[in-house]
Each structure stands twice: as structure tokens, then as C-alpha cells.
């Protein structure tokens, strides 16, 4: 039969892979120009020609060479952005992300350092009883291989860095370590090959002293002399090698790390344990099993005989939540970075970590993508140069560090600043002040005045708010230390409450306030001392500027000092009108400070300790109320929403939809859209006739004609997909094939109908299999000539 079918596109199947080709560099462009004529390369629907002649068309006419030189940065405002501003954005991203990335790496190492140190101590202490025995070895029935079971978390993508840190620390301690992965150890010979190769690399050939009488026997065990066949690797070679190396390092161990224990074949691990146990009285072999699930996987994989040969001790390295809390503290709460996250973007970042994969690397990638998007696509990101944090570390910027911008802002940038609603509210608040009307008018018409005077004022207020917010979160953490564990929340959750809700609207803050009012005087005294130390530390360490709180008529250090003095000496409370108002609000009558009164039901609900506390006077209760009021006033100001701060639209990243679509893709929706609108996804003209026919019906019906009409020149899978959308849950294969044939037979290539039936059937079977592979349908045992539809919508 002559093959008369020709595909409409270069792709033979809808399920083939698609690759993204980056623009060529300057060297690649020179080589291409030497090999062929550039004038003959025009993009006419061919993907390869389109990529080779890719250019960014704008009024600035930025070419590939400019993209390569500037690291992908382009001039915004349709090419009208000054070149100095574009280069400043590139420089600022490098200055911000390099120390921030190093900070995140150090945080991860610091959090996991305790667990890694415990594993290293176990390795060093193993086989001590063997070395101190009289004969130097144990009898065979009592021989056991030391094994450490390490729970490394459910996210296997982060295990590489974790076990690499463990390997580096063990090697620095003088041990010989082999880090094995299941994909390279499918059988016992390959596993021994990988193990011995890595062990041999720990010691160079020249450092091994080979005597003349043993030189010939030692040559087969060295990595340079061993052949490529896996069968040449044996544990007896490791025993000979160890007899030479152990004379130099008596306290060293041979550590074998199985990074992903669940991925290894059970028989391979079982055989390795039996072999290692036979040699453990001569070679101190320590096995480290990395588990991502639970300890039951060892009992399910290994036999009882193998497990009885192990001296097992458990360790936990799953500290991803602690690492995330430390990263959020350094990056968001303590304002170590110029860029922060708004409530939408932060919720997206937190949900992907808590509800999806617990991945630290995914958290870092998402954070970097947000920083790149901020500096690549935001023309006002150049304002971050005015908030001048330290270049050496990621310490928080102070309000006094606000400096002038090294470049002059363009007219478009200044107008974009004036368009921000927070800036408009900031200027409206200035109208009522002395000389405020002139200040506002000059800020609206004079670009130099806006950049030199107004911008520093707004940035100082922004930095002051961040420092006050950091202090508020630190105070909440200090308060939680004196509360029951059920009322304590992690830092990541507290930060979400802080950016999403105001203090008076958050249920958790109300719970903390109620818990504060139930405290006794001794507990409140300890708490106030703790809060006083927190405020003093913040003022001394960060050179804090609480001008944001002062604008709300709140002096944070003074209020905390007053509360600490008041709770230490309740008798110093003066009987003024404020105290009378506090007493009336609490249902307390004005009495003599030393007198006591009958406790009401409201008093018992607010302070349950009064049921068994008979020594607390009304003066002490008024002091407790006053202290709680001071704390609530400070927290109400410090934890106010960031939307009240000027320029928050710029420095608080809000593009949560971009993060979700980039890091949480929906493949089913993408495949359905590609099959429903084939002309846009596989670069073909299959629906040109349909769109031309629908032009006669009017412009309003053009899109509906493109979406619903089935054209015989479409891809076979697209035809089958559109036909299956008209069916119910059960799809009859014969009816489906009949409809498919009626569409395909309209092609001009099918002249001989009898000869084309077998080809149509083959094309239909391929389309059905691709639909089954993509997950749209499945076979059913209920009706063998039917398939079940699995997807709906779109």
C-alpha cells in the first residue's frame, strides 16, 4: 500500500518532547555566519529558523547581542528606560542575591549541623569494643555491622546536599566514605564497584607505602590497575587495601552511605550486609541508611537474618521546618533583604512548602525567581539602591542608611511613583501639616524634589516600619515562651498572620491577649524582664529607629520600661483618672489600694487563678491590667499591616499567580488547551479554512468557529480528543472510530477508499493510545468494546 498520508506538522506525535532553545551567544553567531549566509535564514513558521533569528522587538530595538551582554536585561518603558537604570538593576540583583544565597546555604548547614554531628559521633564510637578486646576481634556469631538509620525527610531532591555535607564532615574526620545511589547500584557487582572506586579515591596511590615484598600483591587492588569489568571488584581487595591504610589511621572507619535506601533492590542490600558482616571483624565498616519514609521500610526490605546482623541506631535529620523558620526570620522578618513578600506571594511560597514537598531547594528557587522578576521587569527596583544594606552580610538596613540614588530617575519612573496609591495616601497625610500643601504641590510637579526629598522620607518610614515589625514578632515569640504549647505558633505562621491581618482582626493575637490577662504577677514580672531585654537588644544591635511607632504616638522602649517598673512595684501605681477608667472598664469599683472586694464572675473568667489565689490585691490586678494594655499597644503598632506603609507596592512582591504557574504547573490543563487549539501550539495551518468560513458569519463568531469546528487536516489526536468531548462517561470504540473515519475521509489524499480504511484504522488506534497515555481514557473490564472517560471540563 502506498503511504499517502502526510502529517500536517514536523511532529509525528503529540506526546513527543519539546525543547526550549536559548538565543545563541556571540561566539555561536560568528560560527554560524562563517558556515552559512545569514541573509538566507528567514523565519517562515520553522522553529529552528525562528530561534536562530530571535530578536526582542521594541522601540529600543534590542538585539541578541544586547541580551547576551546585559544578561537578559532589557530597557523597559518600551525601550525608553535609560541605559544606566537598566545596568543598575542588573548590578543590584547581583549584590542582593549573592550574599542572600550564601546566607540560606549557611542557615541550612547550621540547622542540620546538630544531626550530622550526632551521626559522626556514632561512626567514631563504633567498633570501640572490638579494638579494646584481647584478641582484637570478636567471634563470628557475635559479629555485627554498625548501622545508622538516618531519617532525611520526604523530599528526596534535598537529600543530595544533606548527605554531601555528611560525607564532607566524615572525610574531614579522617574516615573513608563511599556515597552510593540506587540508580548506579542495580546489582551487587556494580554496587561493589562504586563502593571500592570511591574508597580508593580517598587515598592517593603515592601516599600508600608499598613494601617490596608486597608490591606485587598490592597492585591488583589499586584503581589504576583494576580492569573495567565489575567482576574484578571484591571485598578481599578492600581487606588488603585496609591492611596497608589502617597502619596510618587507627581510628578511621569505612563508611558506606546508601543515600536512598528505598530505591535499592532488597536482595542487593541483603547480600551486602551479609558480606560486610563477614569482614567487619577485620574492616570497621559502618553502614548509613538514608530513609525518606519510615523505619518499617527496613523490616519490609531486609530479611530477619540480615537485620540481626546490624547494630542499628536511629538519627533524625528532618529539620526542614526549622530551616524554613530560620530562613524566613533572616529574609523577611529581620529585613535582611530589600525585597519582601506580600500576603499573596508569601502564602503561595508557604503552601508549596507545607502542602507539597517540604523542599528547601524549592523554597530557594522560588525566592530567586521572585528576585529575578523584581529586578528584570520592575523599573522602580532601582530604588532599592537608596536602602543601603551592608555589602558584607545581610544585616538589616537602618533608617539612617538611606542615601541618594546614584542616577537621576526618568520622567516615566517619577510618574510611576506618583501613581502608587500608598504614595498618594502619604501625600494626603502631609496636607494638614504646616507647609504641607506646598510640600504636596512641589512633590507632584517637581521631579527633582520628589527624588531628593520625598523619596528619602518615604523610604525612612518603610525601613522604620520593618524594624518595628521585626521587634513585634520578637516580642510575640518571647510571649509564647511563657504560654502553653498549644498556644505557640511557629515563626512562619506568625509572619503570615502579621502580613495578612491587622492586630485587632487576627484571632491568634486575641488569644495571646487573653492569655496575657490570665497571668499571675510573678509570671508577668518575668515576661516583662524578657520583653525589656528583647527591646534593649533590638535597639543596641540594629541601631533601631522607631519613628514609625512614634508617628502613632507610641514610644516602645518607654512603654516597656514603664510596664517593667510597674509590675515590679504595683504600689507605685497612681490613682489618676486613667486608672479609674481602666477599673470601670474591668468592672472594678474604686477602692482603697490595700482593700479587697468580692470577685465577680467576669473576674474569674479573665483570671482563673483568683479561685485559689487569696493574696492578690486590687492594686496588683490593676497593675497587671496596665501592663497588658502597654503590651497590646506596642504590638498593635508594630504588627500593623504593611499596606499602610508608603512604597509597599514596590518592595513587597505580590505576583503570586506568576509563581504558581511557574513552580506549580497544571499539565492536564495545558494538554487539553493544546489539543483544543492545535493551531496555536504545534505551529500548523490546520484551522485556516475554518477561520475563513467563520469570517462570513461575523467577527463575533470567529473564535467559536476556531474552538468547535473539526477540520480533517487537524492532528489525529486532536480530532479524537474533540470527538470524545461529545461523549458521556462510557465511550463506544466503534462509534468513536466511525466518527473519526467520517472526518478523516474528507481529506483530498483519500481517493481509493478501500485502500485507505486500514490506514484510517491505524491512525485511529495510535490516537486512542496517545489519549490513553495522556490520561484521558482507560480500558474497562465491564465492557470490552468501551473505554471510560477520565477528564471533564475545558
From TrEMBL:
Query: Subunit structure, briefly?
Result: Component of ORC, a complex composed of at least 6 subunits: ORC1, ORC2, ORC3, ORC4, ORC5 and ORC6. ORC is regulated in a cell-cycle dependent manner. It is sequentially assembled at the exit from anaphase of mitosis and disassembled as cells enter S phase.
Q: Where in the cell is it found?
A: Nucleus
Comp. bias (Basic and acidic residues): 589-600
Provenance organism? Coemansia asiatica
Q: Tell me a GO cellular component.
A: nuclear origin of replication recognition complex
Origin recognition complex subunit 3 N-terminal domain residues:
11-383
Any idea what job this protein has? Answer: Component of the origin recognition complex (ORC) that binds origins of replication. DNA-binding is ATP-dependent. The specific DNA sequences that define origins of replication have not been identified yet. ORC is required to assemble the pre-replication complex necessary to initiate DNA replication. Binds histone H3 and H4 trimethylation marks H3K9me3, H3K27me3 and H4K20me3.
Compositional bias, Polar residues, is annotated for 36-62
From the Swiss-Prot or TrEMBL record, give the protein name: Origin recognition complex subunit 3
Q: Where does the record place Low complexity bias? A: 26-35
Amino acid at each position: 500500500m502506498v503511504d499517502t498520508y502526510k502529517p500536517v506538522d514536523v511532529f509525528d506525535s503529540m506526546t513527543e518532547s519539546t525543547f526550549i532553545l536559548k538565543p545563541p551567544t556571540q561566539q555561536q553567531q560568528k560560527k554560524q555566519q562563517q558556515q552559512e549566509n545569514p541573509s538566507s535564514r528567514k523565519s517562515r513558521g520553522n522553529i529552528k529558523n525562528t530561534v536562530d533569528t530571535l530578536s526582542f522587538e521594541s522601540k529600543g530595538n534590542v538585539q541578541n547581542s544586547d541580551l547576551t551582554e546585559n544578561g537578559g536585561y532589557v530597557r523597559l518603558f518600551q525601550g525608553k528606560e535609560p541605559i544606566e537604570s537598566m545596568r543598575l538593576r542588573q548590578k543590584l540583583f547581583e549584590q542582593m542575591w549573592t550574599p542572600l544565597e550564601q546566607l540560606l546555604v549557611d542557615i541550612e548547614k547550621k540547622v542540620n549541623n546538630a544531626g550530622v554531628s550526632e551521626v559522626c559521633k556514632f561512626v567514631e564510637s563504633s567498633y570501640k569494643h572490638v579494638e579494646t578486646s584481647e584478641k582484637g576481634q570478636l567471634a563470628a556469631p557475635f559479629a555485627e555491622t554498625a548501622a545508622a538509620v538516618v531519617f532525611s525527610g520526604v523530599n528526596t531532591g534535598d537529600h543530595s546536599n544533606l548527605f554531601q555535607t555528611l560525607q564532607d564532615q566524615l572525610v574531614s574526620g579522617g574516615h573513608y566514605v563511599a556515597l552510593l545511589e540506587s540508580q548506579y547500584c542495580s546489582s551487587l557487582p556494580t554496587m561493589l564497584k562504586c563502593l571500592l572506586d570511591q574508597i580508593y579515591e580517598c587515598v592517593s596511590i603515592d601516599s600508600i607505602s608499598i613494601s617490596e615484598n608486597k608490591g606485587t600483591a598490592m597492585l591488583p587492588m589499586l584503581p589504576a590497575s583494576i580492569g573495567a569489568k565489575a567482576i574484578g571488584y571484591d571485598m578481599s581487595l578492600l581487606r588488603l587495601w585496609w591492611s596497608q591504610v589502617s597502619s596510618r589511621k587507627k581510628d578511621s572507619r569505612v563508611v558506606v552511605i546508601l543515600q536512598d535506601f528505598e530505591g535499592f533492590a532488597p536482595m542487593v542490600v541483603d547480600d551486602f550486609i551479609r558480606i560486610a558482616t563477614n569482614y567487619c571483624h577485620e574492616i570497621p565498616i559502618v553502614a548509613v541508611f538514608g530513609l525518606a519514609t519510615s523505619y518499617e521500610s527496613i523490616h519490609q526490605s531486609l530479611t530477619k537474618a540480615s537485620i540481626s546482623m546490624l547494630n542499628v541506631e536511629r538519627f533524625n535529620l528532618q529539620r526542614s521546618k526549622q530551616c524554613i523558620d530560620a530562613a524566613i526570620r533572616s529574609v523577611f522578618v529581620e529585613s535582611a533583604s530589600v525585597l519582601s513578600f506580600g500576603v499573596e506571594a508569601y502564602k503561595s511560597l508557604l503552601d508549596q512548602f507545607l502542602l507539597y514537598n517540604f523542599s528547601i531547594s524549592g523554597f530557594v528557587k522560588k525566592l530567586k525567581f521572585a528576585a529575578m522578576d523584581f529586578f528584570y521587569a520592575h523599573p522602580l527596583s532601582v530604588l532599592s539602591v537608596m536602602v543601603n544594606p551592608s555589602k558584607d552580610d545581610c544585616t538589616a538596613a537602618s533608617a539612617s542608611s538611606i542615601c541618594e540614588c546614584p542616577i537621576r530617575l526618568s520622567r516615566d519612573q517619577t510618574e510611576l511613583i506618583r501613581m502608587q496609591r500608598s504614595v498618594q495616601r502619604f501625600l494626603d497625610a502631609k496636607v494638614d501639616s504646616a507647609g504641607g500643601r506646598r510640600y504636596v504641590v512641589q512633590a507632584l510637579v517637581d521631579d527633582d524634589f520628589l527624588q531628593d526629598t520625598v523619596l528619602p522620607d518615604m523610604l525612612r518610614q518603610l525601613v522604620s516600619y520593618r524594624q518595628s515589625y521585626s521587634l513585634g514578632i520578637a516580642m510575640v515569640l518571647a510571649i509564647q515562651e511563657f504560654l502553653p504549647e498549644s498556644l505557640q505558633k511557629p515563626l512562619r505562621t506568625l509572619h503570615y498572620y502579621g502580613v495578612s491581618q491587622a492586630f485587632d482582626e487576627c484571632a491568634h493575637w486575641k488569644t495571646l491577649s487573653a492569655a496575657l490577662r490570665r497571668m499571675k504577677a510573678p509570671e508577668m514580672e518575668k515576661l516583662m524582664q524578657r520583653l525589656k531585654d528583647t527591646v534593649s537588644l533590638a535597639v543596641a544591635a540594629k541601631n533601631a529607629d522607631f519613628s514609625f511607632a512614634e508617628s502613632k504616638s507610641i514610644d516602645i522602649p518607654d512603654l516597656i520600661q514603664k510596664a517593667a517598673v510597674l509590675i515590679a512595684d504595683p504600689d507605685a501605681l497612681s490613682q489618676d483618672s486613667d486608672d479609674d477608667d481602666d477599673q470601670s472598664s474591668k468592672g472594678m469599683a474604686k477602692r482603697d489600694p490595700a482593700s479587697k472586694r468580692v470577685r465577680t464572675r467576669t473576674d474569674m473568667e479573665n483570671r482563673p487563678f483568683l479561685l485559689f489565689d487569696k493574696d492578690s490585691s486590687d492594686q496588683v490586678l490593676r497593675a497587671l491590667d496596665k501592663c497588658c494594655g502597654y503590651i497590646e499597644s506596642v504590638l498593635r503598632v508594630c504588627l500593623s499591616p504593611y499596606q499602610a506603609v508608603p512604597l509597599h507596592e514596590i518592595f513587597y512582591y505580590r505576583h503570586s499567580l506568576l509563581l504558581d504557574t511557574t513552580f506549580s504547573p497544571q499539565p492536564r490543563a495545558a494538554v487539553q488547551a493544546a489539543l483544543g487549539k492545535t493551531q496555536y501550539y504545534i505551529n500548523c495551518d490546520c484551522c485556516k479554512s475554518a477561520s475563513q468560513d467563520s469570517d462570513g458569519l461575523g467577527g463575533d463568531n470567529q473564535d467559536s468557529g476556531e474552538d468547535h469546528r473539526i477540520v480533517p487536516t487537524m492532528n489525529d489526536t486532536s480530532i479524537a480528543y474533540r470527538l470524545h468531548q461529545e461523549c458521556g462517561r462510557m465511550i463506544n470504540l466503534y462509534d468513536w472510530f466511525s466518527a473519526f473515519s467520517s472526518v478523516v475521509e474528507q481529506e483530498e489524499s483519500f481517493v481509493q477508499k478501500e485502500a485507505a480504511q486500514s490506514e484510517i484504522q491505524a491512525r485511529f488506534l495510535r490516537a486512542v493510545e496517545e489519549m490513553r497515555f495522556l490520561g484521558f481514557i482507560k480500558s474497562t473490564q465491564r465492557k470490552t468494546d468501551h473505554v471510560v472517560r477520565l477528564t471533564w471540563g475545558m
